[in-house]
Amino acid sequence: MNKEVSKIKAKMLEFLSVNILGSLSVNTQKTLSKYLTKIYKQPISKYLIKPYCSLNYRDADYLQKFKPASGKQEYQSFQDFFTRKLKTKPKNLSKFVWACEGLLCDYGLVKEISVSKVKGEYRTVTEIFGVSNEEIPEDYYFSNVFLHNNNYHRIHSPINGKITRIQRIAGDLLILRPWIYKDVPSAPAFRNERVNIDIVDKSGKTWFLSIIGGPGVGTIKLANGIGKGAKVQIADEISLFLIGSTCCIASPLPSKYKKLNDKVEMGSPF
């Protein structure tokens, strides 16, 4: 019975996301998202933080490793909490690390990942990253990490390397939750607004990142100093979200995390 209820709920949410939100103009979607973001910026919204943390974090010390994005001693709003920053960069990093914190909702070889039908057209996983099929080898590995609202929402470099491409692609702002899209959990990544970043490591291999927005994002902001030609060190901050997000990665190496619904953490070994 519970499974049937979940299926019905997922179907309803998919209809809401694709058929209702997806039918609105991009400008209307952005207006709604900016309005939601504006609410979370109000000072009174800071009173949501304590009950929200009580519901979402079992670790009483979880927030101790973060500081307000505003630079103040205390969080000024829920948005200030949502865009919290790490107090210190993770130590004892391995050679390759996860770029973000979240739920691994899709994983596999690029050549084996399902295509998705978007507005009447079938698209391959390489189109998430804004490149042709030839630019990402078939033996690369695709990862899709869904960042829930309670996750840390800044994206960091998974490697030491040089940024060779930054591409901003306009698109929809569909609901990102992967469990509502049946057999294609990465479906919104094929059509949502995103920023694609390529980083070439010291061996000449390219790591492809697609930083994807959803309802309420407002915008995807690049960190200071991030641009084409910039050199980045492992775990350097690349970007941040304003509410709701997904990060897709195409990597030349397989991840140690292959089980769907595994939680990954920024800075942990890739």
What does the model show?
By secondary structure, the chain is an alpha+beta fold. The chain has two domains: 2-86, no CATH class; 102-264, no CATH class. It has four helices and 15 strands. It has helices at residues 2-20, 26-40, 49-56, 78-82, and strands at residues 66-67, 85-86, 102-109, 116-118, 121-123, 141-147, 154-156, 161-169, 194-201, 206-213, 220-222, 231-232, 237-241, 245-251, 263-264. A hairpin with a 2-residue loop joins strand 4 and strand 5. The mean pLDDT is 83.
Coarse shape: globular
The beta-strand count equals 15
Order of helices and strands: HHHEHEEEEEEEEEEEEEE
Structural class: alpha+beta
Strand order of the largest sheet: 12-8-9-10-14-6-3-15
- Approximate strand percentage: 25-35%
Largest sheet at a glance?
8 strands, antiparallel
In whole angstroms, the N-to-C terminal distance is 38 Å
- Please bin the fraction of helical residues: 10-25%
- DSSP summary: helix tally: 4
Domain module tally: 2
Backbone CA Rg: 18 Å
Mean pLDDT: 83
Segments where pLDDT lies below 50 for 5+ residues? none
